Amino acid sequence: MRRRAFSAGLVLVAVAVAAVVATVLLPNRTNAQYTPISNVPAQTVTDDPVAPIDPEAIKIGREFLLTAVVRKRLDWAYDHVHANLKGRMTRAEWDTGNIPVIPFDAQNGATTAFIPVFHLRVEVEFEVALVPKVRAVYAGRRPLQFYIALRREGDRPRGRWLVSYFEPNWRPPIRLRRGAVGGLG
What we know:
By secondary structure, the chain is an alpha+beta fold. 28% of the residues lie in helices and 16% in strands. The protein has a domain at 55-168: Nuclear Transport Factor 2, Chain: A, CATH 3.10.450. The protein has helices at 2-25, 55-66, 74-79, 83-86, 91-95, and strands at residues 115-119, 123-130, 144-152, 161-168. A 4-stranded antiparallel sheet has the order 1-2-3-4. A hairpin with an 8-residue loop joins strand 3 (144-152) and strand 4. The N and C termini lie far apart (59 Å).
């Protein structure tokens, strides 16, 4: 049994040495690494340049907070939401109120600050802090920060602004165990 294992080991070592010699030491004569895959020039993506913040984007974003987020005047919201957010929903489906927008009864929707995360020519993103009403139906008792992004219609530099994203900037709390390193216990 030992002789067979030793012989098998020698065969494996010989195969490994032959593989190393064939791949590393022998020259490659085909030059396949230098042969182009295609003669057509590659398509490159041009970066969207940074642009000043358009007050119209903030106006549409604020109106979105006062309509879709609190489930009022959903007709207005449907016309000002990008397909990235509403998907293939019809107006009739949207008007039911069962929409892909997180509801939040904010008392400061008309006055909250829109803090820019980035602002490009065809897309902008803001962070907003919303404070719930005292007896909010859709919100808890704590203020939440949300990200709201707007995109120009058709990705045209002069297209109208449409809300394309609305999500909370929230992470679940991590509970510390007693006696954990850095813990309070």
